[in-house]
Amino acid sequence: MRGMRIEEVEEEENPAMKETHATDGTCIEEEMPPNPPAKTMTMDELQELLAKLKIHEAHPSNIAEAVLSALGDTEGIDPRTIGLDDEPRTWKEAQASLEAKEWTKGYLDELKSLKEMGIYKLVPRSSVPAGAKIRKGRPVFTRKRDENGNVVRHKVRLVFKGFEQIYGKDYTTTTSPTARMESWRILLHLAATLDWSTKQTNVKTAFLYSILPDDEVQWMEQPEGMEEEGFEDHVWILQWGLYGMKQAGHLWNKTMDAAMVEWGFTRLSSESCIYYCRNEQGIVIAVVHVDDLLSIADSEEENARFESQMKT
C-alpha cells in the first residue's frame, strides 16, 4: 500500500462534559447541555444584522470576525446558534469573490496532489468504452480557521458526483464497519490500567488510497476551468477512490484491513474494528474508525513502529 499521510491528534477535553467534586473529593463527570443547532445565515440576513447591531462596514474583509465579536457582546444573542454561509458553492463564485487568488491556489494544490498520487490518468475521450458514463466532479470550498477564528487556509477538495452512480453498474457494495464507542473506552481503560503508550492518529485523504476494482473504474470530466492545456477534450480515468464515490468508504476499509493483516495484525471476530499484534518486540492494539485510529502499546517504541508502518 502507498505510504499514508497521517497526523497525530492532540488530546482534547470533551466540551460536552464537566467535572464536579463530591464532598468526599470524588471526581464526577456531568454531562453539559448540548450546544443549540447551528443556524445558517445568508449575506442579506447578515447585512440586516449589521444594521441592527450598528456595525460600520468599513472593513468588509473582516466582516465575519466583526459580526461574531459583536454577537459575543450583544445581550440576547447566542453566537453558538449562528453560522455564516458565505463560502463559494461553485468555481464561478470562487473566482468572483474577494478571495479568488486564495481559492485558486487551494484548487491548484488539490489538483496537484491528486496528480502526484496517481488518482487519475488523462486519456482521450474516444478511449471511453461505449455505454460508459463520463461523470463530473465539483470543488468544495472551506475556510480553515485557527482557535481565534482567523482564516489560516483556503481548502478546496474535488468531490466526485457519486449521487449519479448506478447500483450494479458503477458499484456493488457501500457497507463499511465503524467502531463502537465501547471499543474506544476499553482500549483507553486498558492503557490507563497497564500504563501503556497511547496515540491517536488520522489518515489524511484516506479514501484516495483505495484501488477501484476493474469493473468499477470510473470516468470523469476534467474540472471546469482547470483543463490541461492542449488536452482540453481528454477525460480522467479514475483507478483510485475519490471523495463522493458510493463505494469509497467500503474500499478504504478493505485497503486498511489488508494493510493491517500484512503488518502482522489479527482482527477480532467479535469487533471488526479492533486489531492486535503480538511479537517479540511487544504488543500493539488498535481500533480503527474510518480514517481515525487509536493505538495502545506496551512501549513507546512499539507505538512509534506502528506509526512508521502506516507511512510506508
How would you sum up this structure, described in words?
The protein is an alpha+beta fold. The protein has helices at residues 43-53, 63-73, 91-96, 100-116, 181-194, 248-262, 300-311, and strands spanning 6-8, 17-21, 27-31, 39-41, 82-84, 120-123, 134-135, 137-145, 151-160, 197-203, 218-221, 235-238, 266-267, 274-278, 283-289, 292-297. It has a six-stranded antiparallel sheet, with helices on both faces. The protein starts with 5 loop residues before the first strand and ends with a helix.
Shape: globular
Q: What is the helical fraction, as a range of percent?
A: 25-40%
Order of helices and strands: EEEEHHEHHEEEEHEEEHEEEEH
pLDDT averaged over residues: 81
Fraction of residues in β-strands: 25-35%
Radius of gyration: 24 Å
Oligomer: single chain
Number of domains: 2
Strand order of the largest sheet: 1-10-16-15-14-13
How many individual β-strands? Answer: 16
Number of helices: 7
